[in-house]
Amino acid sequence: MSALNERSLWRATWVIFDKDLRVELRSKETFATLGLFGAVLSFVFAFGFIGDPAVNLQVAPGVLWAGLLFVGALGVGRTFAREQDNNAFTALALSPIPRTAILAAKVLMNFILTAGTMALMTPLLALLLHLDLTPFALPLASLIGLGALGFALIGTPLAVLAVGARFPEVLLPMVTFPLVSPVLICGVRGCAALFGTAVDDDYWAWAQMILAFDLIAGLGGFFLFEWMVSE
Amino acid sequence: MSSDLTVGDPPKPSKAPLFWMTLAALGMFLAHWLVFIYAPMEGTMRAVQRIFYFHLPSAWLCYLGFIMCAGSSLLYLLKQKSKHDAFALACAEVGLAFGVIVLTTGPLWARAAWGVWWKWEPRLTTMAILFLIFACYWVIRSFGGDSPPVRKFGAVLAVFGAPNIVFVHIAVTRWRGDHPNNIQLEPEMRVVLYSCLLIFIIIYALALRLRYRVHMEERTASALARELSRLGG
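^ Those are the sequences you sent over. The predicted structure of the assembly is below.
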């Protein structure tokens, strides 16, 4: 019985994720919006912070992680917007599948959207700020990936609840930003360690802290989600 | 008619708050006398050190308020009882009030001790972020309406927010840290600190009780109003 439940959880997660991905691949609506937003942000940051290479390397971690927060907030806000049409979310919540599957699928989708946008935005920022980030490509990708996952894990359950509230577009970033501040601090310090602007620091220790945050936020979110959508 | 209501009868007025309010008011006079006259002058920080007697008890009670808010919010999420939500809201409000004292007295001390109003130091950062999270909670609860989704949103925010602080603290400690630690207090100083703490606890409990009752009575009033409009319609 439990094996069946487990299988149905994975299956339901996959079905919802597949549906979201298919809709996104057909319309390309969210990804195009996020990608363009990421590009606009990169230019704004470049206008604001461009200086000599040493200065650029110092501001780069902050710029990257501020970008991740903005992109993540925009993406998370869109999570349930599509489900609101025709009251699809109620149908989804009433369907005989584990509710955690809905959360898992949405977290996965948000993670892919945020990480995908960051994969475009990071090289663009490096280009605009005259930085060579190729030596750090892999560790940087892992740091940003863990950060994007943390943002999705915190932001997605909150996005479900914001659907019924007033001003969801303001509410969501307002509450998500302070909650993901540990990810932001670790991410910025981790990047600084990686780029060599912070001496005697190890990027891997910061990555481990983001990983621990992701694990705990994920466990908490999945545990509470059942009660969050109980009505 | 009240038997149709899901909420209880209006609570009977009691004289207890008056007693505690008088005690708290007298206690505050005592606290000022203790802090400014009884407490000995500290060697290095001089008079500025006296801020500490209000700062530290406020910080403890601010943390207590937020932890109680998170606990009560978790109960609300699991049991969906209105009283847990009202209690969580009252805890957050009282915690925020003490948080304002901490974030006002802290920079005043920091300016004298460190020469700057603010430092990115673990305890300051932790308190600031915790305060921000619960300020968001309060804004949502105050302006977002009082529907079950808003209550749940607030509850989730509080439940995620309080443990989150452990991470902020660890992260900033690794980054930088120089808050006064293991302060050695003279016996008179200790008397002043714990007296202030006791007086602040009375104020805390009183404020919590009053805010909780206000929230519960607001709910009774709106349930009555709904009942009336149902009967009228």
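The radius of gyration of chain A is 18 Å. The longest helix of chain A spans residues 99-128.

Shout if you want it in another format.
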